[in-house]
């Protein structure tokens, strides 16, 4: 007898694929009540405290056409948590009703039909922009921007081990500088970005500058 699939199991599939790649976020489109939303599926970091021990991902719903309006929450395999019902109803245009528990269940079930069962490539520009904006806000290894100009070797942690490239920096480099990203196998090296297009450099220029600054260190390719 086959196991019945949990309503939000595809979120776990996305999370597991993101973690396998050491990425931080995925995006897809969701339509509800004639309004289209960009959904960001975010991975919890190892150091991050979860709102619930059962939570598998964080979710952010962003109104298409009004990127300043968003609704943030989290989900487990079976339901989306709604910490504030009033904000939830106002954001999604849901009229008040006594059976709000049923409404959340119906919303969760409907939402589940939009969740991809794998990470997707060749995304539409608005999804790529949403991902890049999120990575820009959360990448602790680099400044904001999409123009790659360099590499840096990360420092040493208190326990004496080398700091690893963050999942946000890793994904940003994979999306914006794919050929260079494939060359840099050493996860103690992070990618540097700028908002200034004049600072963007070729892969060869970046590698040459890094080699000159780190002539005594081995660059793992």
From TrEMBL:
Q: Name one Pfam family in it.
A: DUF6037
Mind telling me which InterPro entries this protein's record contains? Answer: DUF6037
Protein name (Swiss-Prot/TrEMBL)? DUF6037 family protein
């Amino acid at each position: 007898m086959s196991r019945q699939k949990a309503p939000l199991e595809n979120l776990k599939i996305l999370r597991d694929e993101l973690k396998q790649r050491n990425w931080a976020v995925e995006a897809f489109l969701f339509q509800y009540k004639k309004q289209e939303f960009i959904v960001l599926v975010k991975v919890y970091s190892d150091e991050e405290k979860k709102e619930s021990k059962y939570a598998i991902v964080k979710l952010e719903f962003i109104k298409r056409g009004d990127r300043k309006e968003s609704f943030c929450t989290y989900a487990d395999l079976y339901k989306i948590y709604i910490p504030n019902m009033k904000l939830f109803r106002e954001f999604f245009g849901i009229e008040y009703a006594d059976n709000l528990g049923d409404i959340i269940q119906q919303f969760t079930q409907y939402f589940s039909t939009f969740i991809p069962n794998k990470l997707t490539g060749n995304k539409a520009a608005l999804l790529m922009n949403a991902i890049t904006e999120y990575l820009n806000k959360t990448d602790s290894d680099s400044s904001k921007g999409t123009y790659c100009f360099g590499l840096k070797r990360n420092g040493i942690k208190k326990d004496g081990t080398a700091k690893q490239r963050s999942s946000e920096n890793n994904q940003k480099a994979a999306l914006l500088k794919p050929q260079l990203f494939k060359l840099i196998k050493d996860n103690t090296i992070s990618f540097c970005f700028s908002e200034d297009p004049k600072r963007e450099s070729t892969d060869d220029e970046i590698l040459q500058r890094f080699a000159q600054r780190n002539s005594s260190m081995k660059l793992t390719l």
